[in-house]
Amino acid sequence: MHPVCIICSTSSLDGDGTAHCGYPELPGPASPAHRADNSSAHSRQRAPMSYRIKTVAERTGIPRNTIVAWERRYGVVKPVRAPNGYRVYSDADVARLQQVKLLLDRGFKISEAIQLLDRPDPLDTPAAPPPDAPRSAMEELLERLLAFDRPGADRLRAGFSTLPYRAVIDDLLSPLVRHVGHGWERGTCTVAQEHFATAWVRDQLSTMLLQLGGGPPGGHRVACATPPGERHELGLLGLGVKLALHGNRVIYLGPDLPLEALGAAVVTQGIDTVLLSIVNRTDAGSLRELADDVRAVIGESPRLVLGGPGVPEDIELGCPGVITTSVPEEVLQG
Question: Which residues touch 61 (CB under 8 Å, ≥6 apart)?
Answer without folding.
Answer: 101
